[in-house]
Amino acid sequence: DTGVSQDPRHKITKRGQNVTFRCDPISEHNRLYWYRQTLGQGPEFLTYFQNEAQLEKSRLLSDRFSAERPKGSFSTLEIQRTEQGDSAMYLCASSLGRPGNTIYFGEGSWLTVV
Amino acid sequence: AQSVTQPDIHITVSEGASLELRCNYSYGATPYLFWYVQSPGQGLQLLLKYFSGDTLVQGIKGFEAEFKRSQSSFNLRKPSVHWSDAAEYFCAVGGDYGGSQGNLIFGKGTKLSVKP
Questions:
Q1: Any idea of the CA torsion for A68, A94, A71, A87, to the nearest 10 degrees?
Q2: Which residue among A36, A46, A70, B44 sits deepest, i.e. has the most Cβ atoms within 10 Å of its Cβ?
Q3: Which residues pair with A48 in a beta bridge?
Q4: What is the DSSP letter of A70?
Q5: Phi/psi of residue B61, nearest 5 degrees
Q6: Tens digit of pLDDT for each residue in A5-14?
Q7: Quick check: B46 and A102 CB within 8 A?
Q8: pLDDT averages per 10-residue partition of chain B, 116 residues
């Protein structure tokens, strides 16, 4: 399978715990994106990387959220001190480097904070 | 402000009937437009995209969409719906505007139900 893969697919955590999601993009794609989707809503942009550089962050990405792409390949999204409002699906996507290139999405990682 | 509006939250059509899902956008530059489909609990699959050129674009699964600049619209159509088309459909806009290079702005989606 050469698509975008995400792990874990589902995570249930207690409020206040930290969680980390991993994304492996399509291998030749130098752009990697994180989106968040809550029930009944469309995906909302969180951040994106060009290779290992984090170039843009949404105001939705509070200081409890941190994303990394250390070697320009896989990426991690960590949420510290989770809150119930963090419950959502976290989607990773990747693309080649120019605006307008198709963005391919993974299956998503569901987070439930109890 | 950049935005996408999908005015229909939920649409039900009979199998074999035609379908049109509406999408209006607001964007400060030439938009790139996309339609994605999402099955329950799954990620998004690209149906089709418009970058430039012919304003009628063909996609997978028999879908097409027409870009109308004067109406700021990018409606999705299918002449004959199949039961397997039941899913949620998202319209998205992106481009090189305001420093955002490639991230997409999505509408809230239209849920499609198909009656036998």
A1: 20
A2: B44
A3: A33, A56
A4: T
A5: 60, 25
A6: 999 999 999 9
A7: yes
A8: 92 97 90 91 89 91 95 97 96 69 85 96
Q: Within 10 Å of residue B112's Cβ, how many Cβ atoms? A: 21
Check CB contact under 8 Å for A42 and B94.
no
Q: How many residues does chain B have?
A: 116
Judging contacts by C-beta atoms under 8 Å, the chain B residues touching residue A31 are 102
Instruction: Please give the distance of CA A84 from its chain centroid, rounded to a whole number.
Output: 18
The residue behind tokens 């939705």 is: A60
Note the pLDDT tens digit of each residue in A73-85.
999 999 999 999 9
The minimum CA-CA distance between B16 and chain A, rounded to whole Å, is 27
- Residue carrying the six token digits 């050129």: B53
Q: Which amino acid is at B54?
A: D
Express each pLDDT in A29-88 by its tens digit. Answer: 999 999 999 988 999 999 989 899 998 888 888 899 999 999 889 999 999 999 999 999
Residue B70: phi and psi, rounded to 5, are -65, -25
Mutate to test the interface with A, among B21, B67, B104 (most CBs of A within 10 A): B104
* 8 Å CB contact of B43 and A105: yes
Distances in Å between the Cα of A93 and the Cα atoms of A113, B57, B75 are 23, 23, 24
